[in-house]
Amino acid sequence: MKKEPLVSGIRALDEAKIPVILVDRDVDEGCDYVCFTGTDVYQGAVTSAETLMKAIVGMGGSQEALEAIKEGKITGTSFQQPEEEGRSAIRLAIRYLKGEKLDKRYMIPCPAITKENADQFKGQF
Question: pLDDT category, 117, cuts 50, 70, 90?
Answer without folding.
Answer: very high
